[in-house]
Amino acid sequence: MEARGFSFPRQRQVLFLFLFGGVSLAGSGFGRYSVTEETDRGSFVVNLAKDLGLAEGELAARGTRVVSDGNKQYLLLDSHTGNLLTNEKLDREKLCGPKEPCMLYFQILMDDPFQIYRVELRVRDINDHSPVFQDKDTVLKISENTAEGTVFRLERAQDPDGGPNGIQNYTISPNSFFHVRIGGSDEGMIYPELVLDKALDREEQGEFSLTLTALDGGSPPRSGTSTIGIVVLDVNDNAPQFAQALYETQAPENSPIGFLIFKVSAEDIDSGVNAEVSYSFFDASENIRTTFQINPFSGEIFLRELLDYELVNSYEINIQAMDGGGLSAICRVLVEVLDTNDNAPELIISSLSNSVAENSPETVLAVFKINDRDSGENGKMVCYIQENLPFLLKPSVENFYILMTEGALDRESRAAHNITITVTDLGTPRLKTEHNITVLVSDVNDNAPAFTQTSYTLFVRENNSPALHIGSVSATDRDSGTNAQVTYSLLPPQDPHLPLASLVSINADNGHLFALRSLDYEALQAFEFHVGAADRGSPALSSEALVRVLVLDANDNSPFVLYPLQNGSAPCTELVPRAAEPGYLVTKVVAVDGDSGQNSWLSYQLLKATEPGLFGVWAHNGEVRTARLLSERDAAKHRLVVLVKDNGEPPRSATTMLHVLLVDGFSQPYLQLPEAAPAQVEADSLTVYLVVALASVSSLFLFSVLLFVAVRLCRRSRAASVGRCSVPEDHFPGHLVDMSGAGTLSQSYQYEVCLTGGPGTSEFKFLKPIISDIQTQGPGRKGEQNSTFRNSFGFNIQ
């Protein structure tokens, strides 16, 4: 084998540089190599790495590959050693037929940068075929009056070998009448001619049998023989004559079998048997004999086998016309095969990548070559892909194309692209070939998890069980694989005093939130925190959302009675004049409920009474009033049990006990005053203020503590009898509560309320009334009185 390779950069190298989209393409001139036919598979042709001047391993690094012009791969590249090897036994006669030299063309493709080198491989012939005559026995009829020097052309032998291994000479067996000389055609073929050296005499010798030998130029030479039988005829002095020596005709390659190609005709002016002309192929190859047939009587040439322009585009047929006397004439018929568009374009993929990372710049996906075996307009091609795709199809050299991305791709917009490469020829009708390529866009972590809501509001009823599932947060990631796997976590609270770690926890996999302990609405009504969602990409991306937890109230607190105080001390006694009208305000039960909403709505009910029907309790405000007029028969002391109930489900309640003392200490003449009605309105207003004040006191723990300290500091001596409340002015200043016209009394009263600091007592005490500034308008006449009763009440909060 012989390698006359590239002489880079000195010999026959032409570089074409294409710059587009960051891809560099180079095409070089021919690199010429040769290999002998019939060598075994894997035979060494050339070391490409050395021939191209590349370092060891660079062929593999640059993805070097060999692409043949046809569909069959005759050569194999070992990218590790750089050796170019034969992929199979090469038969020159099958590859090229009689054509010499026999050349195979292929391309060498390399990436990074992308380069294409065009190379040709010559398949050298060996003498592996002997000459063969189509007819082993040939009969020549020669008239006895044929002149000396007459030349008779003989059928040539066929030798598939080419060049010097083809047929080089013809010889004939020794005789005294004939010798063989070599003739040549315009196509470079040689053929034998039989030359008459001596006049024939049928009566002396009517027949001859000669052996024609064909010799090729191999070493050693091969040969083939044919027997030439010569029959000496009586005189037939007129041979058939064709009108033309050469006829030309055309036949489309899609002509059906039996199609009439042409009709030849020869005339013979002789008569009788000597004028009967028959037609036959002369010196025809096996290919012509299998493709055409001739009617021996009419000279019509018919198609015996389908024509294929891509295999043979023309035929030269020798037709012999022979009369009955053995004289003949020869003409040539040149049949031109017309090309029809019967071959669809071919698309040969050289390299292909079905995956590309999103956000990548322009990337080469495929390199391929297109080919059409037709010719002319039928062989011209147009290559394109669908519109509105983020891909480009760029032409290269030698009908190569490059499929590449137009720019960065987004997997979240479209994870896969179906690309149809269409190759259409320009023939009539147009034929096309389509090749589908599916390109998968691999994911890059370019999307952070996104919560379904920017904020979540969760409701939890107080007194919940620990580890209760209170809600969930959810985030999705548009990426895929590990880039889309979301992990949830609690973010550090913005309020450093919020013990978030002891309140809630989150499931890192699904975002479920759990309350770690029982929540108390009265201690914590609401709290908020942030949760984070991070994916598992590299680098990881994250986002956060706000979670608000609202604690719902449960009816877990019973009403608490502020007044009258229930601390085990002496019961509080309310004084009611016997002259009181029905509806007289005796006192007011004040209670609060630590719950909220309807759980804190309170209602009051008289549960027990010493004398039923004498007193009543207003259900909504807890006011205790007389239900009828008092009489002397009514007992002086009364005990009332008032039930305070909230509106929860189930309801909770508390009871308190009142002691009422009916007294005669108020004289009847002073009970009726003109301003009784306005005083009643003022008393109602005072009642509202008192309820608000007492509720505020009960809800403010700090005030209770301060009050507790103040009571402890109070120093006084407990009076043994009902008297005046002695309280140091600097500790507990007196507060006058105006009870003008309260109930059915017509006078204006003022009570001095004092806090009693002594231990063991927590009650209001009526000490004694103080009447001053009494103005009388006359005996027996009702006058306007302004009486001030200074009473002292004391209570102690233990």
UniProtKB/TrEMBL annotation:
Localization of this protein: Membrane
Predominant subcellular localization, coarse grouping: membrane
Domain Cadherin per the UniProt entry, residue ranges: 68-133, 134-242, 243-347, 348-451, 452-561, 576-671
GO molecular function: calcium ion binding
Membrane topology, as annotated: Single-pass type I membrane protein
Transmembrane segments: 688-711
One cellular-component annotation, GO: plasma membrane
Name of the protein in question: Protocadherin beta 10
Organism, as annotated: Piliocolobus tephrosceles (Ugandan red Colobus)
